[in-house]
Amino acid sequence: MTPPDINDIRAAADRIAGAVVRTPFLLSRTLSEIIGAEVWLKFENLQFTAAYKERGALNKLLQLTGEERARGVIAASAGNHAQAVAYHGRRLGIPVTIVMPTSTPLMKVAQTEEHGARVVLHGDRFDDAYARARQMEEAEGLVFVHPFDDPAIVAGTGTIAIEMLSQVPELDTLVVPIGGGGLISGVAIAARTLKPEVEIVGVEAELYPSMKNVVEGASQAIGGDTLAEGIAVKEPGKLTRAIIKDKVDRIELVSERDLEHAVALLVAIEKTVVEGAGAAGLAHLLGAPVAYKGRKVGTVLCGGNIDTHLLANVLIRELVRCGRIARLRIGAQDRPGALASITACFFEAGVNIIETNHQRIFSKLPAKDTVIEVECEARDAEAIEALVKRLEAKGFDVTRAALD
C-alpha cells in the first residue's frame, strides 16, 4: 500500500467537509499551569459518534464506486470504528455489516444497531471477529473497511493536523495516542509537510506497547485490562508502522494510574467526557511535565465513548487518590458509646460519613474489641488527616485502606 500524501489529506478535508464536525481546538489554561507548557486540546470527542474515526471512515466510503456501495461494506470493530462506519453508511445509503466479539458490551452493540448496521457477534476476541469479517467479505462480496491500515483511512485522520496547525501554527509538539496507528500516521504525514520541525510523540498504553515493540524492535509483554481499550491493539498496521517509523520522533508509554488521572482531570477541569484512549496524550503530559516545560503542545482527545459506570469508578478513585475520600479501619472496644465517640470526631473534623461497617468476627483484635470500617468524604486531604489525629488522640487505633 502506498501511504497518502498532503494532497490526499487536503482532498479528504474537502471531501468530508460539512459531514463531520470541525471540532474545537482550545487552550487549557488550567492544564497548561499544571504541566508548565501551553497545552492545546483537540476535542474529537465532540464528533457525532464521539470519536475521530468518522473522518477516515467517511473518506473511505465516499471513494467507493456505485457498484461497491450497492454491494455494501463490512468492518470488524468493538467500538468507535463500528459506529463511524454504521453512521455514515446509513447517511450515504450503503448497507453496513459490523462483526463484533461476543464480549462487546451490549450498549455498544445497541448503539451500532441504532445506526442501521447489521451486527454479527463472533468469537471471544477482536482477532476472531476480524477473521470472521474477512470470511464474510469474500463470501458475500462486501467491501472491507479497515479501522486503520488503509490509505483512505489515514488520509481522513490527517485532516485533524491540518485543522490544528491552521488554527495554531506556532505549535512545536504534537502528542497523539497510538492503537493501530491510523490516527498518528495521518497526523504525522500532514504535520511533517506543513511544519517539518514539529516534534511528534506517540503514546500507547503501558499494557499494549505493540507499535513500540515493532518500531523499536522491543519485546515488551502485551495484554491485560486497560482503561484505554480503544488503543489496546495487539497487532498494529503494516502501512501505519512504516509511516510511524519514518515520521514519528518517539513512542511513550502511559500507566493505568496516569490514564485514570487524565480522564478525571478532563471531567473536572474541561467539563468534558473522554475515554481512556482519548486521554492517553494528556496522561503522558501529566506524567512527564518536565520534558514539555515551556513548549506549545497540541494533543488529540480522540474519543469520548466510555461506559458511565466505569467513568463513575474512575472519578471516585481519583477522589481517593487526592485524599478527599478515605476508608478508615478504626479499632475500638466493643462497648456502648464507642461509636458515638467516633462519630463525634467526624463531626468535629467536618468529615462526612458515607458508609459504616462493624467487623467483630474477621479481626485480629481481642474478642471484646471491634473494627469499625468507615468510608468518608471531606473537602480536602488535610481534613482527613486532622480527623485521624483526633481519633488517635482519643485512643483509637486507625489505619487507612490503600487504593494502590
Automatic annotation (TrEMBL):
Swiss-Prot/TrEMBL catalytic activity: L-serine = pyruvate + NH4(+)
Top EC group: lyase
Keyword Lyase: yes
Enzyme Commission identifier(s): 4.3.1.19
UniProt GO MF annotations: L-serine ammonia-lyase activity; threonine deaminase activity
Keyword Lyase included in the entry's annotation: yes
Residue ranges occupied by any ACT domain in the UniProt entry: 327-404
PROSITE patterns according to UniProt: ACT
Assigned keywords, A-Z: Lyase, Pyridoxal phosphate
GO biological process terms held by the UniProt record: isoleucine biosynthetic process; L-serine catabolic process; L-threonine catabolic process
Pfam families in the cross-refs: ACT (PF01842), PALP (PF00291)
Cofactors named for this entry: pyridoxal 5'-phosphate
Chain coiled-coil ranges: none
Entries under PANTHER family matching the protein: L-THREONINE DEHYDRATASE CATABOLIC TDCB, THREONINE DEHYDRATASE, MITOCHONDRIAL-RELATED
Family note: Belongs to the serine/threonine dehydratase family.
Protein name, entry field: Threonine dehydratase
